[in-house]
Write a structure and sequence with these properties.
CATH topology of one domain: Rossmann fold
CATH architecture of one domain: 3-Layer(aba) Sandwich
Strand content: 25-35%
InterPro entries: AMP-bd_C, AMP-bd_C_sf, AMP-dep_synth/lig_dom, ANL_N_sf, ATP-dep_AMP-bd_enzyme
CATH class of one domain: Alpha Beta
Strand order of the largest sheet: 2-1-10-9-11-12-13-14-15-23-22-17-16
Keywords: Ligase
Pfam families: AMP-binding, AMP-binding_C
GO molecular function: acid-thiol ligase activity
Structural class: alpha/beta
Helix content: 25-40%
Protein name: Acyl-CoA synthetase (AMP-forming)/AMP-acid ligase II
Length: about 475
């Protein structure tokens, strides 16, 4: 059971470090006791098995204690560590919040401030029986954009979450992972538990920059999205010695070639590229050479990929079509009440994304003759520029080859004639005019650039193109 992993390690190796923070280290023995105390305190506050509880907390250790305590009690959790987006979609039974919330209406809230925590975490641990979850016990709700960009709620049971612990890339031993995903996403929680399952240490950066966290906490593994890689490279101390033993798993979006080269040169070339979705988990794993060529990777054992046309008919190797995915860790649908149609009767919905045992992520791609998966981009994001179809990533890759561009996101807006025109947001300190001119030499496409301080992204690191279109549509 998920909640028994930490107590097991506490009995086996009580003094081993479970969590490393910039200011402290937490042993497995202390972590196990603090989880037990938190479960007792939440139980006394009225949290019960079967409830859905929203956790709003920016303190990583406290947030994690709440999530693990909810697993112990038998309640399902949904997290808001940095983002405020879950309340209306999830409709929780209770909110745990570090400061009084004014937007929860009549929903009961427990304020887990410093005074409450002092009482909770100084109480003696009382041995008691807690509910034993079945595979179908709801343990986690995850907000995802699904395939349409509209918020949907994915319901994850205990058995599914437990299975996902075992679908991981080859990991260093002993394992010391710096978590960069955050607890807003279930992947951040499950990968933390997976480290503990192996008796490893999870590092939290706290207020440290990514570069300083890598330098000071000395992990041997990171899991990062492209935007996090850019942040790491921008803040890495000049004295940091390149470490070929450090492993970095890259996920969330396609990685620009410039970032791959910089990461290999300055940090490590021990890079693993992962393609998957919240709905199906891991699907393919790739090498740096595959990623530099534009491939997503090799389909992992237990997963399946097929490419179909608009009518759903399978396409031969080498032909680009709609990607469909299947895995042993795949969810079966979205939770009722998220705007989807076709309720299945089991608390999820059987809309077009989940059908006939396959999940449709909305990606375009192909399988080559050797079975390598190539992803061209999002079907709904392809830009039709006067009959010439261009994937946004192709535009972004061209912009990112320019030294003056730190980050980029492409999108389309209607011009005066109502036709789609190419636009891109760029993070740069330079004059955008020479950047646009250099871009046109590469792709021979007219482009309008918008300089921004940062590119809007969701919790998984994917570009929020709808936000860009809304912001710049009237420009």
């Amino acid at each position: 059971m998920l909640d028994q992993i930490v107590p097991y390690q506490a009995r086996l190796r009580p003094d081993r470090i479970a969590i490393a923070l910039p200011q402290a280290e937490i042993t497995y023995a202390r972590l196990a006791d603090d989880i037990a105390r938190m479960a007792q305190a939440l139980d006394a506050a009225g949290v019960a098995a079967g409830q859905v509880v929203l956790v709003r907390d920016t303190r990583p250790y406290v947030h994690l204690l709440c999530l693990m305590a909810l697993l112990r009690i038998g309640a399902a959790s949904v997290s808001e560590e940095q983002q405020r987006r879950s309340l209306s979609a999830v409709r929780p039974d209770r909110v745990l919040t570090e400061a009084p919330a004014t937007d929860v209406g009549a929903t009961p809230q427990t304020v887990t401030d410093a005074d409450w925590l002092q009482g909770a975490l100084q109480a003696p641990v009382v041995v008691r029986d807690w509910p034993h979850p079945s595979d179908t016990t709801l343990v986690r709700l995850e907000l995802t954009s699904g395939t349409t960009g509209a918020a949907k709620v994915l319901a994850l049971g205990h058995g599914l979450c437990h299975a996902r612990l075992h679908t991981m890339v080859h990991l260093p031993n002993p394992l010391r992972m710096l978590t960069t995903m955050g607890l807003d996403v279930t992947g951040g929680l499950l990968r933390t538990i997976a480290v503990w399952q192996r008796g490893g240490t999870v590092c939290f950066a706290g207020a440290l920059s990514p570069g300083d966290a890598l330098h000071q906490l000395r992990p041997n593994m990171l899991i990062m999205s492209p935007v996090q890689v850019a942040g790491l490279l921008a803040t890495l101390p000049a004295a940091y010695p390149r470490d070929p033993g450090l492993m970095i798993a890259l996920t969330g979006a396609m990685m620009p070639q410039r970032l791959i080269r910089q990461l290999a040169a300055r940090v490590t070339d021990n890079l693993v590229f992962i393609y998957g979705t919240t709905e199906v988990w891991m699907i393919a794993q790739g090498t740096p050479a595959m990623a530099m060529a534009g491939a997503a990777g090799v389909v992992i054992p237990g997963a399946a990929v097929r490419i179909v046309d608009d009518a759903g008919q399978p396409l031969p190797a080498g032909q680009v079509g709609l990607v469909q995915l299947r895995s042993q860790e795949m969810a079966q649908g979205y939770r009722d009440g998220t705007g989807e149609e076709g309720a299945t009767g089991d608390g999820t919905t059987g809309d077009g994304a989940f059908r006939d045992g396959w999940f449709r992520p909305g990606d375009l791609g192909h399988l080559d003759a050797q079975g390598l998966l190539w992803v061209s981009g999002r079907a709904g994001e392809m830009l039709n520029l006067g009959g010439h179809k261009v994937a946004p990533f192709v535009v972004e890759e061209a912009l990112m080859t320019l030294d003056a561009v730190a980050d980029a996101a492409a999108f389309g807006l209607p011009d005066a004639q109502g036709l789609t025109a190419l636009h891109a947001a760029v993070v740069t300190q330079a004059d955008p005019a020479p950047i646009a001119a250099a871009f046109r030499q590469t792709l021979a496409l007219p482009i309008t650039l918008h300089v921004m301080d940062r590119i809007p992204r969701n919790a998984g690191g994917k570009i929020d193109r709808m936000a860009l279109m809304a912001r710049h549509g009237g420009a």
